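Hi there, hope your week has been kind to you so far. Thanks so much in advance, here it is:
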Amino acid sequence: MSTNDASTQIRVPFASEAAASGGPFVETPVSYDALILSSFGGPEGQDDVIPFLRNVVHGRGIPDERLEEVAVHYRHFDGVSPINAQNRALLAALRAELDRRGIDLPVYWGNRNWTPMLDDAVRQAHADGHRTLLALATSAYSSYSSDRQYREDYARVLTETGLGEGDDPVTIDKVRLFFDHPGFVEPFYEGVRDAVVGYLADGVAPTAVTVLFSTHSIPTADADLSGPRDIDWPEGGAYAAQHRAVAAHIMARLSQEVPAAAGVAWELVFQSRSGPASQPWLEPDVNDVIAELPERGVEAIAIVPLGFVSDHMEVLWDLDNEATESAAAAGIRSVRTRTPGVHPAFVAGLVDLVVERLEGTPAARRPHVTDLGPWYDIARPGDCENARLGFLPAAAGVAP
C-alpha cells in the first residue's frame, strides 16, 4: 500500500510520542494505560429518539418534521436502538478477553451521539489517572463518518475539555481500520458458507444463488475522498474498494472450501440512503437489485451486512424488514447472515489490534486477508475529508 512518505516529518496532534511523527505504522511499543471503546450511540426510549437524531444532524438545520421520517424506524422498536446493548455486550467481552490474556488495561466506553458520551468517558479516564489512551471505534472501513469523524471527536473532546494541553496532556491514538482483519471477516464467512450450503442442500442450483454484500450508502463525493490521496482508487474510493476486496476474499475462500459453491454469484449493494434525491449516493440499492434478480434466474439470496459490526438499526430495519420483504415480493428465498457482534474470533481480533500497538508489531507481521492491508495506524494527509465541511482538527492522523 502506497503512502505519502513526505508526511512522515509532520507531527500528529494529540498523539503519543511514538505516533506523533506521522509515519504510517507505529512499530515501537507504546505503554497505553486505558482503552476507549467509541461508537455511534443510539436512543433507549421513545423520549430519546428526537433528541438523539438532533445530535446526529447537529449543525445541518434539519427540522424535527424531517427527523420524524427517520424516527419511525426507532418508534417501531419502542424507541430503542440495539446499538447500546450491543456495545455493552462487546465491552464485557473485551474486558473478559483482556483478562484472559493477562492484559491489565481498563476499558471505557463513550458515544458520539448519545449517552454514555465520549466526553464523559475521556474525563473519567483522566480522573482515574490515565493519560495515554488507545481508541477502538466500532467501524471497520474508510469514510468520513466511519473513520475521520471519530478522529475529529477525539480532537474535539481533548480541545474542549483542555485535557489535551498542558504539562501532563491526555493523548489518544487509534487502532488501525480492521475491515480485512481475519477476526472481523471470519463471522461473515461463516454466515455466507452456512447460507449457501443450506441452499445447495435444499437442491437449489449454485447458479440460482446470489450473495448480496450490503453496506451503508454514503454520498459519492465523500466516498471518492476516502483513502489515501496518493492512490488512484476506482469509483467509490477506498470505502467501496475495501468492501469489494473483503467480499471477493470471502467468495474465493468459499469456492475453495465448498467446491459445489463455485457457481454462486455475488454483488456489492448499498442500503440506508438518507440524502436528498439531488445528491448522488453510492448505488445500486439492495432493494432495486433484489427486484431484478428473478430475471437473472436467481431463486435464493444471502444478504450479508458486510458494513456493520453488529445488528444495528439499519440491519434490523433496512435488511430484516425492507430487503426481506423485497425478496418475498420477488418470489426469492432469502437469509440474512450474521454480523460479528461478540463472535469469539471478532473479540479476539480486536484485542489483537490492541496488542499490536502495545507491542509495536511490525506491519509485515500484521494479519490481513486482502491486498489492501494491513491498513495504517496514522491516517494519511487528506484521508476521508468531509466533502461538505472540509477539514476539522483530528487526532490519529497527519494534518489536515
Notes: The chain has two domains: 5-178+343-365, 182-336.
